[in-house]
Amino acid sequence: MNFHQLAEDIKRWGQELGFQKVGITDLDLSSEREALQRWLDAGMHGEMEYMQRHAELRTRPEQLHEGSVRAISVRMNYLPAEAGFAKTLKNSRLGYISRYALGRDYHKLMRKRLKQLGEKIKAACDDLDYRPFVDSAPILERPLAVKAGLGWTGKHTLVLDEQGGSWFFLGELLVNLPLPTDKPVEEKCGSCKACITICPTQAIVEPYKLDARRCISYLTIELKSAIPEELRPLIGNRIYGCDDCQLICPWNRYAQLTDEDDFAPRKDLHAPELLTLWNWDEATFLKTTEGSPIRRIGFASWQRNLAVALGNAAHDPAIIEALQARRGAVNEMVDEHIDWALTRQRNKSATTTKQVLRLTRAVEKGLPRDA
């Protein structure tokens, strides 16, 4: 078997199936073990117990599928043409959803394409045995992608490519074929610390190290309990995930837009009014988020996130009324966030009233309006 030619064919087939880049690497991740264990020992994984449970397996991908000796790593762009970043983030009455979650869940689409790639390879080589992965097992996707030459690890811990930025999903095929491997690319973050500086909660505690317990994506997606009160004001109107570190990254000037219809923004989730989302009952939430990654967090976490965003929104009596009306409808955890949001809204109301009174008195005394 000419494995060099097969490797070239695999990359061509992958691109024909909609993967923007395909690379091949061995499965040796021993260099990742010490750093991963230090991160876990520091508790930076938060409530993601599954990270601890399968820690050892994560750096031994060959144990995930017997006989595997290579990973075929792929990436797929997901940034829609009408991303609408500024429009949503700058309007506190709208809810911001991480751009990867605006369309359909990527897991099934990418897994299907990876299976198709596996079958193409098998048609060319009967000896192939493979298994596809898309966030579906304890596997360190980013280090594998970096070893396969798909990009380098940025200081925000995401994979970066100088021709494609970071707006892409990753997936892998573990295979039993001794294919030639690709070389990692040069890291090109240099002295830039834009992602570290811009992070609203300062979750990037040092270059290449993320404390998930402070990350807005973790707080709004992975965390199932109450969001720490001191972090709530910093979340703003981000109700599912956060893209700030990608938005500020200079390399994303070269990001490529997706041509996948499944990743196009859903109308109900693209720059939605917070009060509109807040008024959904659980049945509406489940129906509207069917086929979306958002559905996995459940209605209670969704309501929790919305309550925080409503508390951070500009003062509005309608928000206070809506928060009060929903109290007691879900659970105690949501109620606690509602109470916090109500306090925030009422404090803003009191502040606004004081400002109006000061201005009125100044005008009555004939003083300058800024007195």
From TrEMBL:
Q: Please tell me whether the keyword Chloroplast is annotated for this protein.
A: no
Needed cofactors, names only, are:
[4Fe-4S] cluster; cob(II)alamin
Its pathway is: tRNA modification; tRNA-queuosine biosynthesis
Q: What Gene Ontology molecular-function terms does this entry list?
A: 4 iron, 4 sulfur cluster binding; cobalamin binding; epoxyqueuosine reductase activity; metal ion binding
Share an example GO biological-process annotation for this protein.
tRNA queuosine(34) biosynthetic process
Q: Where does tRNA bind?
A: 224
Q: Which PROSITE patterns match?
A: 4FE4S_FER_1 (PS00198), 4FE4S_FER_2 (PS51379)
Top-level EC class? oxidoreductase
Sorted alphabetically, the Gene Ontology cellular component annotations on this record are:
cytoplasm
- Cited InterPro entries: 4Fe4S_Fe-S-bd, 4Fe4S_Fe_S_CS, QueG, QueG_DUF1730
Query: Which NCBIfam families does the entry mention?
Result: tRNA epoxyqueuosine(34) reductase QueG
Q: Which HAMAP family match?
A: QueG
- Assembly behavior: Monomer.
Know the name of this protein? Answer: Epoxyqueuosine reductase
What is the scientific name of the source organism?
Answer: Pseudidiomarina piscicola
* Lineage of source species: Bacteria, Pseudomonadati, Pseudomonadota, Gammaproteobacteria, Alteromonadales
